[in-house]
Specification:
Elements lengths: L10 E6 L3 H6 L1 H6 L3 E7 L5 H11 L2 E3 L2 H5 L6 E4 L6 H10 L3 E5 L6 H14 L3 E4 L6 H12 L5 E9 L24 H12 L5 E7 L9 E9 L2 E8 L5 E8 L2 E5 L10 E7 L2 E7 L4 H15 L7 H20 L3 E2 L7 E2 L1
Parallel strand pairs: 1-2, 1-4, 2-3, 4-5, 5-6, 7-10
Antiparallel strand pairs: 7-11, 8-9, 8-15, 9-10, 11-12, 12-13, 13-14, 15-16
Helix pairs in contact: 5-6, 6-10, 8-10
Length: 346
């Protein structure tokens, strides 16, 4: 990958979209991270006034359309938090314009989309990473350290539950099937990612059941199992019907590790509970801004030309397993997780 020399200038970011969530959680982080600068924002034409106001807050140029931003020579890296159906297209456009890309999850709604991005990133010699911000909170790193220490034995079962409620009639894009809405491709990505992160591989088979809230056509809740072979499994649930919840549990042969809040925000300490034959103990992990840590880690990879902290192979794997969930729920049976986009049901 081509490196970025911060001595010439900081990594200059452009953000596609000017929503209140991005303005609250992402833009301040980019602007305040050492070695980074928020240079440009873009919006749909009808929201240009709001984007221009945000831009003035940071001294950033406000573009009235997304293409103008990705072609802006004053932008080195683009953050893409657009609707799910737009992630692949705008990532490819940004890469074609020579930009590095941090794209919100899901990177793509199938493995083929991830493969297209990987090929384009290699051709452009640019860094691309899927934005799983929760991975960058130090409590996830600490959980991995405890697991590696052997304190709870060999990992046998992962339980993950991620949920937050979205009200019907709210106009939220997550309720719109035309924009890739539904629980699976939003909050479900986290529930899928946790077992993949700690087992370090994809399951052989999954079985998922979806439900939809009356009046909605997208999936709004799911319960699923994942078979990793050799007696290793995962049980996950996720929803936009209930919540908030972002907890997971690692069950080992000799004990259990529980993370109460994987979404711990700045100002919230992380809490890890370990239950073993020696009793129960609790660790407090000091609060951290996982958005800031994600931006800093991505920027460091760009500067060094080193691999992104979350690899494109991991993104392909997450998309593959999520697609298998969809196939299983549609067929009412188990889905075999294959290396390509096609899954078989039993």
């Amino acid at each position: 990958m081509t490196t970025h020399d911060e001595h010439d200038h900081p990594l200059r970011w452009g953000v596609l979209g000017a929503t209140s969530y991005i303005a609250t959680h992402l833009m301040p982080v980019v602007a305040s991270t050492p070695g980074c600068a928020l240079t440009a924002v873009a919006s749909r034409p009808e929201r240009h006034a709001a984007a221009a106001e945000l831009g003035r807050t940071y001294g950033a140029t406000a573009h009235a359309d997304y293409q103008a931003l990705v072609e802006d020579p004053a932008v080195d890296a683009v953050y893409i938090p657009l609707p799910n159906t737009d992630h692949v297209d705008w990532t490819l456009r940004a890469l074609a314009a020579g930009k590095h890309v941090l794209v919100e999850k899901p990177m793509a709604m199938d493995e083929e989309g991830c493969a297209r991005i990987e090929k384009a990133a290699e051709a452009a010699s640019r860094t691309v990473m899927e934005a799983f911000m929760y991975r960058f909170h130090p409590q996830q790193r600490r959980a991995a350290e405890i697991l590696r220490s052997g304190e709870i034995g060999e990992l046998r079962l992962v339980r993950a539950s991620f949920a937050f409620r979205i009200e019907s009639g709210s106009g939220n894009i997550r309720l719109d099937p035309a924009l890739g809405g539904g629980a699976t491709w939003d909050v479900g990505c986290y529930a899928v990612d946790v077992p993949l992160l700690f087992f370090g591989e994809a399951p052989h088979q999954v079985s998922a059941r979806f439900s939809s809230r009356p009046g909605l056509t997208v999936d709004t809740s799911a319960v699923a199992t994942m078979d990793f072979g050799q007696g290793r499994s995962a049980v996950v649930d996720y929803s936009i019907d209930y919540g908030p919840r972002a907890a997971y549990e690692l069950q080992g042969t000799h004990g259990t590790l529980t993370v109460r809040n994987a979404w711990a925000m700045e100002g919230e300490d992380g809490v890890i509970t370990v239950l073993s034959g020696d009793g129960v103990r609790e660790e407090t992990v000091p609060s951290a801004n996982h958005y800031q840590r994600q931006v800093a880690a991505f920027a460091q990879a760009v500067r060094d030309g080193s691999p992104a902290p979350m690899s494109l192979a991991e993104s392909r794997r997450t998309a593959r397993v999520s697609s298998a969930f969809v196939a299983s729920a549609a067929a009412g049976g188990a889905a075999v997780v294959t290396s390509g986009e096609v899954t078989e049901t039993r």
